[in-house]
Amino acid sequence: MTSLAPIYAERTNAPHLTKIGPEHLPVLSSILRNVQRDDPFSRSAAYYAMTGRKGLWAYGDDETMMLVARHPNRDDILLLFPPMGRDPAGLLAKAVDDPLSLPSGRLELARFSAKDQALASRLRTMGAKEPHQEKVLDWAYPVHVVSPKRIVEREGKPFVSFRGHINRAIRAGYRAEPIDLDQNRDDILRIIEQWADSRGDSDFSHDDLTGPTHSVLNLMDRTDLDIGGTISYDSDDAPIGFWLWEQVGTTAMSLVRAYLRHPGNAEYGILSMAEQLSNANIPEMCLGGSETADLDAFKRKMQPVRSIALSTVALPDRHLAAAMRRYPVAPFPARA
Question: Which pTM does this prediction carry?
Answer without folding.
Answer: 0.90
